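Reviewer 2 asked us to include a model.

Predict the structure of this chain.
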Amino acid sequence: MATAKKLTENHLTCVICTEVFTDPATLQCHHTFCKSCLLKYTYTQPEAVQAKSIPCPSCRQQTNVTNPDRPVEEWVSQLKPSHVMQGLMDDFGPGTKAVEEHVCGVCTKQGKTTPATSWCSVCDVVYCEGCLQLHNMMPGLCDHEVAHLSDHTKTKVKRRFMCQVHRDKPIELFCKDCKQAICTICCSIKHRACKDVDTIESMTPLVKEQLTKKIEKLGINIAAANNIITQRKSTIQDVKSNSQTLKDQVMKARETVMRAILRKEKQLLGDIDKATDEQLSELQADIKSQEIELQMYQQQYEFTANAVTSNCEMDMYAVYDSVGEKSPDNRDTDNRPAARSVVFTHDLDKLSKAVDELQLGEVQVVHDVSDPVSFPVLHHTIDCKEDGDGKDPLVRDVTVLTVDGIKVVVVADYNNNRLKTYYTSNFKSFHNQLLLSSDPWQIAKLCESQIAVSVPDSKEIVIVNVTPGPVLLSTIKTSKDYYALACLSPSQLAAGTDGQSHFVDILDMTGRRLRSINTGVIRSPDFIHVTRKNNLIVSEGDVKSLVCVTSEGDAVFTYTPTGDRALTWPLGITTTSTGDILLVDYHSHKVIQLTELG
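Predicted model (structure tokens):
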């Protein structure tokens, strides 16, 4: 019952009404919805109705209808659930509780709970002994296949594949034109004009094979999606950490500016103190001088006054002789210079503008190395020399994978016939290696945990799983010695040989050549890279050009710079997340960045 509940909640629930499917319908994209919900949604999409198609509410893919001239209601009503979905609905959907609990389905309708003993695979109903007898007495039901329920296993026998339109007729044919499993009546009525109808027995192995391949592809897609989710979660942590680092840098810049402002403030306050002290010193000196003069004037005043009031002519004339004709120094204090003032002059508007224009820094979003004016920064260096190496390592190619959240560097060591991996886990560094039959050349990433490596001297392409250590999965024998290698799709590889044929071969995963693509001036590619638009970029050391072609062989561009920018020995190629091309020019010690169109 727990399994049924889990299936009902996770797989048998319509995403529109969030209820268990009622009359489900499956679209061409394999998404299933209630017919009533799908009909209501279709009416909200006038563009799809005008285009005579049914839009998927989940992925927006359009499903073509068989009778576009009929009303929209008939478009939806003609949709059927997939066989897998119908099987799940029959086994675990509404109305199956009686089957699961082995209670007679007929008695349940009458409000009884009679234990069931048998199950009809055609009616898909369990019966008690009494109801089974009535079932077997019916002329149209007596030939149905009936199985006894086991009290020990409590499982149903394999369901008969019955027609959904003519429910008493088994599915015996398959219409290849309509891609439908049908009964003989359907074939004679609805598929008379169809040209290719085969037996269900003949089609079942082919259908199973296609579904198996579909499962494999879905498995690869699931693994890739999980890897992307893991990467994105790791990136989220990096973004949050980077955000805090940037905030710290902004606050540090602000503190630097504040320290400069405080220095300016301290300097101005010091200037005010200095000017004030000088002004006070001058005023104090002037007061001292005035006090001395005042004392002298007071003495003269008293001496003269005593002479005048003494009635002694001798004293009076003695004072008069000492003073002579001079009169007292009557100072005009109004004409004396005023004391100096300390003033602070500033322009508030100019200051406000300067603060507004103050640049603490600039925040930019940079994708990979997409900023043409940025400079490369060395983050880490890996020494590929390992114990057991007979020669100095020659790193022919390198790639980076993310396996279970761990970044793994994979290196092709040409001189030592080895594939080496390097990674860090729990703050410890690890390295592993895989011995190959001959010299590895180029690494092609198939997914985040799987690579293909060209081994030209052995005429092999090896498939390696990175766990994060390298594990050999399989070896593809090839008819040519392929050097350059890239992944064109999950089922196709692009490989270049040393035969000077000006072609890149497209291979399937068994090594069989599907077609060849002309690479123009590139005679025998040393390296191949597949862009996000599925174009091929090829390089060759002794050809001073970089060539880009489509996967069908149409030319996109040929990059052949001249003069000081001429290529010297172009080798490794890759692209950034923005589509820019990075090319290693070996002899000039440069990595050249090009736009997506060269």
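Confidence is low (pLDDT under 50) at residues 151-157. The longest helix spans residues 200-309. We have added this to the supplementary material.
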